TrEMBL record:
The protein, known as: long-chain-fatty-acid--CoA ligase
One GO MF term attached to the UniProt entry: arachidonate-CoA ligase activity
UniProt keyword Cytoplasm present: no
Keyword vocabulary terms for this entry: Fatty acid metabolism, Ligase, Lipid metabolism
EC number: 6.2.1.3
Domain AMP-dependent synthetase/ligase positions: 72-423
EC category name: ligase
Gene (name only): LOC107670181
Transmembrane portions of the chain: none
Length: 660
């Protein structure tokens, strides 16, 4: 009954009494939360406080690679397969020593306080050690996604005038080496791997160091912190310049000060019940994304241990895990994890695929338990006996996950409901654009969106609607050296409050819940005047069992929607076999009959969820290649890059719009 009362209570109220807001949480109506602990107003203070409290406890864990081997697939492609050992842990005290030594070593190499230093690296323990080093020494950290193109990285390094760069051997040799002559200010490259590389082929003005050697340099008496005083940051100092992967144009560097991150994490941590040293967090999302970075810093702050992983080693079925060996979730058994909706959709589809493989009795029992628990949840109750049937499903993520942080894009209600039921999860849905640090505690208001975005109005009845604006201590300072973008996306009101214009369309409900109903750039006006929300169509049609990913497309001079689709290989191949179609995966995707079969299922799903006739795709193209950040067709958070997708499928667009 307490849960039901909490669910039904008013969550936020307007601070002005006006329908359009601004709205603020009733839990912090008089003032927004700005920090977790009194006096801890910078990131280095949070880390020092954590070391003081949790000194000998495990902090960062990495699995040892026992062996590697190449496996050739039937289509001729070669995949690297790994056999991994147990997690090896670094304690808080050991991490503190590494941070101190690395900071002293960087100072000995000429890195100065308030001068930027960059990291271009995969998610791993060394990334977090580098970040804590920079926070302690007041080195503003410039971050880049590991999948960002070399030209984009070179642009960001030059824009920030970076002289020191932390990276990995793989990224150094495959992406950076060719563009180093284009980065004249760069003097030192530090690679995080425990190996030696030759400096041959690199520009003469650049010195190459291992992270271990820089730490050894910092451990020397003449370079330790007693000999080199540390310049501590203040809350208004720049902590991070986070380059977004972006859906169009050059990447933009978002300027984030210490108080932005402290305020954002305070709101985030307040919404996680019982967060503490009994928790284990599995880290695999890009640390150059604000959702992952703040999640990990929060875990360190509260004494949670962090085990590092990757999307390719997450589960027993992951692409880099050798058949028969254990994935990272199985070994780590995390209690907390973060995920973007694309990954949660994949997990959910894997679950439902497993259900379809059950025998008739098991499948019937699963469905009965699922439906019964759904009814109980709607009434505000649980169904503990039913949870026994979901034990094997929960084992996919290690069996102990109690909360999942989701951000980066809207999560479909169907996926959230399924994950809640099968994994017994509590979801924390986070606002997680780099421009506004992940948080729950902030002010929000709506402004009228232009007619080109569907004509949503803040005085709409029965609920006000419009573009969502975010205000609060987590709103960042704008884009680095991009005054035009600052004026367009950020503004300061008459009270000195910084606001960010999200581009999301929201609807405010009477109980103070804000629902994101659309995205400005996703709205297209068809020839007959109807507005189509491409994001709404995509979210709805991801429920199709034959679809792994989808991009809806529409032209204003046409009167129907088309789509590009990455089909589910297992499901479509099985369907092709039923239809007597054989061949390679590419040949199956190019069969017109398979397009018709996918279209048939699309229409069935669209009708069942009551999409409007003009919203249902009329023609589709099946893509045999998945969309990954490496292909450049989605961001690192797996958001669609519509411009790149349009250019990639231009011939198919012309074909589909050339004849209906």
């Amino acid at each position: 009954m307490k849960k039901k009362a909490l669910a039904k209570r008013v969550k936020s109220r307007s601070t002005t009494g006006q329908a359009e807001g601004p709205y603020r949480s009733v839990d912090h109506f008089d003032s927004l939360v700005t920090k977790d602990f009194p006096g801890k107003d910078t990131l280095d203070k949070l880390f020092d406080y954590a070391v003081e409290r949790f000194g000998k406890a495990d902090c960062l864990g990495t699995r040892e690679v026992l062996s590697e081997e190449n496996e050739t697939q039937p289509n001729g492609k070669v995949f690297k397969k790994l056999i991994l050992g147990n997690y090896k842990w670094v304690s808080y005290e050991e991490m503190d020593i590494q941070v101190s030594q690395f900071g002293s070593g960087l100072s000995a190499l000429g890195q100065q306080p308030k001068n930027t230093i960059a990291i271009f690296c995969e998610t791993r323990a060394e990334w977090m050690i580098t970040a804590q080093t920079c926070f302690r020494r007041n080195f503003p950290l410039v971050t880049f996604y590991a999948t960002l193109g070399e030209e984009a990285v070179a642009f960001g390094l030059n824009e920030c005038g970076v002289t020191h760069l932390v990276t990995s051997v793989e990224l150094l040799e495959t992406k950076l080496k060719g563009v180093l002559p284009q980065i004249p200010n760069l003097r030192h490259i530090i690679y995080v791997d425990r190996k030696s590389i030759s400096s041959a082929g690199y520009p003469q003005g650049i010195q190459i160091h291992s992270m271990h050697s820089v730490q050894e340099l910092g451990a020397k008496p003449e370079n330790c912190k007693k000999g080199r005083p540390i310049v501590k940051p203040i809350s208004s100092d720049l902590a991070v310049i986070m380059y977004t992967s972006g859906s169009t144009g050059r990447p933009k560097g978002v300027m984030i000060i210490h108080s932005n991150l402290i305020g954002g994490m305070a709101g985030q941590c307040e919404r996680i019940p019982g967060l503490g040293s009994k928790d284990t967090y599995i880290a695999y999302l890009p640390l150059a994304h604000v959702l992952e970075m703040t999640a990990e810093i929060s875990c360190v702050t509260y004494g949670c241990r962090i085990g590092y992983s990757s999307p390719q080693t997450l589960s027993d079925q992951s692409t880099k895990i050798k058949r028969g060996s254990k994935g990272d979730c199985t070994m780590l058994k995390p209690s907390l994890m973060a995920a973007v909706p694309e990954i949660m959709d994949r997990i959910n589809k894997n679950v439902m695929s497993k259900v379809q493989e059950m025998n008739c009795v098991q499948r019937t029992l699963f469905k009965l338990a699922y439906d019964y628990k759904l009814k109980q949840i709607k009434k505000g109750y649980d169904a503990p006996l039913c949870n026994i049937l979901f034990k094997k499903v929960r084992a996919l993520l290690g069996g102990n996950v109690r909360m999942m942080l989701s951000g980066g894009a809207p999560l479909s209600p169907a996926t959230q409901r399924s994950m809640n039921i099968c994994f017994l999860l509590l979801h924390l849905l986070l606002s997680s654009m780099e421009e506004k640090v992940s948080a729950y505690r902030f002010e929000t208001t709506c402004r009228d969106s232009p007619n080109t975005s569907g004509g949503y109005k803040k005085h709409d009845k029965p609920h006000p609607r419009g573009e969502i604006l975010i205000g609060g201590p987590n709103v960042t300072m704008g884009y680095y050296r991009s005054e035009g973008c600052i004026n367009e996306d950020f503004f300061v009101d008459e009270n000195g409050q910084q606001w960010f214009c999200t581009g999301d369309i929201g609807e405010m409900h009477p109980d103070g819940c804000l629902q994101i109903v659309d995205r400005k750039k996703d709205l297209v006006k068809l020839q007959a005047g109807e507005y189509v929300s491409l994001g709404k169509v995509e979210s709805a049609l991801k429920n199709c069992s034959l679809i792994d990913n989808i991009c809806a497309y529409a032209n204003s001079d046409q009167n129907y929607v088309i789509s590009f689709i990455v089909p589910n290989q297992k499901k479509l191949t099985a369907l092709a076999s039923q239809k007597g179609i054989e061949g390679t995966w590419e040949e199956i995707c190019n069969q017109p009959i398979m397009e018709r079969e996918v279209l048939r299922e699309i229409k069935e799903v669209a009708t069942s969820i009551k999409l409007q006739r003009f919203e249902i795709p009329v023609m589709i193209h099946l893509s045999p290649e998945p969309w990954t950040p490496e292909t450049g067709l989605v961001t690192d958070a797996f958001k669609l890059k519509r411009k790149e997708l349009k250019n990639h499928y231009l011939n198919d667009i012309e074909r589909m719009y050339g004849h209906k």
